[in-house]
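Sat 14:20. Reprocessing the chain from the morning session after the first attempt stalled halfway. Input below, unchanged.
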Amino acid sequence: MNMMVNAMRRFSTMFPPGWFPEAKHNFYKDYGWPQDVTFDMLYGMYRRNGLGAAAANKTILRTWETLPSFWESEEPAESDTEADLRQRLSDIRAWQALVEADRRSFVGGYAGAILRFADSKRFQEPVDRVPGGLDGLVEIVPAWAGQLKVSRWDTDETSETYGRPTMFVFHEAAVDTGGAVEQQHQRQRQFEVHPDRVIIWSVDGTVHAPSALEPGYNDLVDAEKIKGAGGEGFWKNAKGAPVIEVDKEAKLADMAATMGVSVDDLLEALNEQVDDFQKGFDKLLMLQGMEAKPTSVTLPIPEHFFNVSVQSFAASVNMPIRILVGNQTGERASTEDQKEWSKACMARREHIVIPSLRELLNRLERFQIIPERDWTIDWESLLNASPEERMKRAKTMSEINKIGSDPLGGSEPAFKVDEIRAEVGFEPLDELNREDDDDA
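Finished this time. Tokens:
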């Protein structure tokens, strides 16, 4: 009976978990993956891993390829209020701060956009009314999730803000961004901040949102292992520690005397000589009565294994692999890849960026920095045809006209000249001629 039980246990190891209740494996431990992924780990992967950095930076660059506009009405002409708001956001570099907040939320799951107002109050105090109109908005400070933490929650079940933060603490030096001078400056910026002055930038507007890097974190770890092992293996092959074989006729006392050490110190002297030999490719290894044989490591071609990890990570961030790694194999991303990538970034705009921008407008209205309006966020679509595609369409329209034209001029062309001009963004000929007459 015991033999049968043992056989079943050995047999069960051949199958995945769930086939047999006895088979219990911690695959995270077996494969060297972390059980829990912290912010510091995600931030480190963004800072030191090329794939993680490419996923975050390319996503943000595509999402913010153009800047949005805030409209207080649907009229085509820019109003004075819209122009003033656009100018103020440009003056305080608000767009750069918001783009950075979006990037940091991609990595950390959430980020903060801390609003600094000229209301003569401390960060920890609530905001009532900010005087001075648009001049009341002084700065927008982006904050990593590791720098902005909730210090107090609303635990009153009868409160409208039950379950939400009632105070944050901002500690800029909590995230090491590098540079001794910068760190000294960061240590001076530590304070409590009221929720009125913070916009939480995340997919759900809370600090509980997951990082976009987390689903593919194990793939990044695997890619680092393969790349690092391959690099170390090639280095070991190029300059590996030699195996020293001592001839049976060799006299250790003579060897020690030649090297100027005692017999007891001979092994340490040999180690120092080999270590010195390994530090440079042009070093010589002088041995007496010994033979040095190089060690070699047989390495499999890592490309296939590395590509598996890269493909899995690209899928986790909804990014075509050719866009993630660039033009590495002579093949550019296809038109279909570009369209799918643009759709993914448009979805990010719709579900993450635009709600956060709308919250910014609501705060500015609430604090009477801008007037209350039915504000519209206008943003050029990423799915619009490129200039090359539009020119190609115009060329095709012209060729269709040429093919279908009557040599005697009896038939109408399929497309009018102004329609072809509009395809490439040119003004109609009538308006162009009218402007010329007005200039004359």
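The longest strand covers residues 111-117.
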